[in-house]
Known about the structure:
The structure holds two protein chains of two kinds.
Chain A: H1 2-31, H2 47-55, H3 57-64, H4 79-89, H5 91-98, H6 107-111, H7 115-142, H8 148-164, H9 174-194, H10 199-210, H11 222-245, H12 251-269, H13 276-302, H14 311-349
Helix pairs in contact in A: 2-9, 3-9, 4-5, 4-10, 4-14, 7-14, 9-10, 10-11, 10-12, 11-12, 12-13, 12-14, 13-14
Chain B: H1 2-15, H2 17-31, H3 45-78, H4 81-87, H5 92-121, H6 127-162, H7 164-191, H8 196-203, H9 214-218, H10 226-250
Helix pairs in contact in B: 1-5, 2-3, 2-5, 3-5, 3-6, 3-7, 5-6, 6-7, 6-10
Amino acid sequence: MARFSLFFLQVALLTTGLTAWGLQANKLYKRGQLTKAHNPLHLKQSPFGRTLSLAMRGPVDVYWHRGEPHEHPPGEEHSHGHSHDHSHGHSHDHNHELGHGHSRGDEAGIKAGEDADLDYLASLLEDGEHEHGKDHSAADTTKTFTGLRPLLLDRIEALRTAYNSRTNRTAESPRHKAYIMGETEKRLAVGYEMDPRNPSAYGAYFLFKSEALARVEGQAGEGLVIRNRRGEARRLAHRTQHYCWNFPTEAPAMITGASAAHDCLQLLSEDPDPDLNFVRFYLNRLDLMLKNYEAIRGAMIENSRWQLFPAPRRSEMEKTHSLIKALRQADIQYWNKRLSQTTQSQRPGS
Amino acid sequence: MTSLFRLTIATMLARKMWAVVLLASILTPIIFPLLTPYETNTALLEPARAQTAWTCTWIVAILWTLSQAARFGESNSNSGMGSYFRSQGVGALRQIFALWGAVMLSLLPVVLISVAVCLIFAMPADPKEASMWVWTNLQFATLLLLAIGPLALLGVGASSRFGALIGYVVPTGLCLYGLYGVTYLGMTIRLRDDNKILEWLYALSPQYHLADLTPRLIFKMGHLPWPEFSGFLLYFLAITVVASSLATLLFRTDPLGN
């Protein structure tokens, strides 16, 4: 008898427990308290995430270069940031470089009256190349020491190069390329989510979105895909500058935020009827974040904490800074003209 | 040696896990590529098949081969079988290689199925690419066996002394570290080249990711150039010498406490 009632008690408890569990879960679900962004081990945006975001560039590299050998001397900046810098400010050149055929309706709009700026930017980028060369020689001189460790590292480097070498010289199909670009974009997305403040992680991901690199070239409906991706790119840039705004004491966050604000302006300029409040907002943000970056950098150099950033990260921030500073001038000129035009055209009507 | 080898094979056959493993290695390259958006692009299926087949082989090697190695190593010393065979005149060296041979022989069909899947269901149409494809697969098979073999031997050796848990976790950890961890370590070093300890650690780590030629198959990069491939072979042979001497040093035939 006692055993029987104990059994019923267990079954009753089980039933009540299940019911309570179900009801409570339902309640939480309705309140939306169960939804949680996928973030394994809370790595995304955490201090570890920053390191991982940098480290993610390794696996991304393999996809980006499609297995072609791509050697950087140790400690030198990755070509991503660099290629991004090219494209990001310089969308015209970039289109030629990659050979993409898609036309951008407002290119003429940007070109008007800004050729001098673009020329200036081009010269700036060339300066960047020289800097690159200097970095290279600096890295070489530090590499002259010998010993077992460098020997082993060189050997492993040689093995890695062989691993990534390409024997097959047959051309890739556009679909195959799209697949590889899609894989790259996924990895870039993870790298970005790990640390949205990282200028290169954001820059590379934004480039992929804004240029819709992960698409099958020449496929039907290509225009729609490009338009959708550009919409995503705009949301990404907006989110990034918003996120970076929360870290006013960090130099990388400020420079990334400034570059995201510039990207927002760039994308707005392609809009035939942009929201001018947004334009003013982004111009303001761009200005504030650039100034803040310069202030932080100045203070850090003064108390010699600036050297604590690894050299490649410093040069990455500096390059982005000089580029964005020049681009801001172009932005201000372009938007001043456009803002005054619209106010003039609005005045007679109102 | 042959009787312990045959006994191990018979035990594995009786455990019937081989059926699951073989079925998985045949079915996964059929099923998983269907998860790709192949409807719009049938050309996605071939690289996806190659990728699935070889990924499955790695997973089988890590989950099954290494765990079997650890299990047989422990049971051989704990159950007294090792002592028995030694009394029959089978020395420790012959015992460890008998156990290892049986475990590795069971991995061989899985590797062969992967090669077969790639050669039959994912062969490039272009004859020049096709010959490269064949060589890539054969190089991959060789490197995979050269990476897993010493680890399995280490598993047998370590588990006979420290038990199956250690005998499984250590080789598996080494393998996963060599496949994935080392590349992240390498990136860290390239980003800040001032940490000598990390550089030593990197230089002395087993670079098992070199044995994983899956990207060469996905991207149709062609086979490894032969001089470089022989470099890879020498590298993994050196690791084999280290791992197998360590394994034979650790291996014991008698139960612990004797």
